[in-house]
From TrEMBL:
InterPro entries: Ice-binding_C (IPR013424). Residues 184-207 form the Ice-binding protein C-terminal domain. It comes from the Bacteria. Residues 1-19 form the signal peptide. This is PEP-CTERM sorting domain-containing protein. The keyword Membrane does not apply. Keywords: Signal. The keyword Signal applies.
Length: 209
């Protein structure tokens, strides 16, 4: 009986388990797997935990942290999650600083005004000075193209004016970034059949004893 329950539990766990498609999403290996543009990005230790830090007062109004990755074509849905803390202020004479993230996939779908093969799946603007927060969402990626890479994530700070015209004075911390394939959960009917089969096995064992 115990062996049967273990098998059922293993089945349910396998269905719900998710593997990160990103490399080093917790920054425990520094910036391995990540790229940065414009301003500097560094990894700092906060209470024994490594986090990415974007704040470069010597840049010209933009800092970006990014990573590209591959989504298998059999995946129809992905989850996107991360932790962030945005401490914002602005000593410049121009616009205030903003921070946010992007999740993009390569689906080959273009329009007359945008010929890029990349499509924005999610764009998140971060809340200001609200302490550590977590984000989670699930998205349909059934139209992805089988090209490596076909997914990418971005985190950044920028001037609200829409172009680089002054320094970013704010600080953005990022941690625990995960993009994972979401496994399909068994339909209620399928799970009911599984339980019915389990009950049958238990009954047969009792009858045989």
């Amino acid at each position: 009986m115990l062996r049967i329950l273990v098998l059922v539990a293993s089945f349910v766990f396998a269905v719900s388990a998710q593997a990160n498609l990103l490399v080093n999403g917790d920054f425990e290996d520094g910036l391995n797997g990540w790229g940065s543009e414009f301003g500097s990005v560094q990894v700092v230790n906060k209470n024994g935990n490594n986090v990415a830090k974007l704040n470069d007062n010597n840049s010209s109004g933009l800092e970006v942290l990014w990573q590209s990755f591959y989504i298998p074509t059999e995946v129809n849905t992905v989850s996107f999650s991360f932790d962030f803390k945005f401490k914002g202020w602005d000593n410049s004479r121009h616009q205030e600083d903003l921070a946010g993230s992007l999740l993009e996939v390569r689906d080959g779908i273009t329009s007359w005004w945008d010929w890029s093969p990349w499509s924005i799946v999610e764009a998140v603007e971060f809340d200001l000075n609200s302490g550590w927060m977590s984000f989670y969402g699930e998205y349909d990626v059934s139209n992805i193209v089988d090209i490596d890479p076909n997914g990418r994530v971005f985190f950044g700070i920028f001037e609200d004016s829409g172009w680089c015209n002054d320094l970013t004075d704010s600080v953005l911390f990022i941690d625990n970034v995960v993009v994972a394939a979401v496994a399909s959960v068994p339909e209620p009917g399928t799970f009911a059949l599984l339980m019915l089969g389990l009950a049958g096995l238990v009954f047969a064992r009792r009858k045989a004893v």
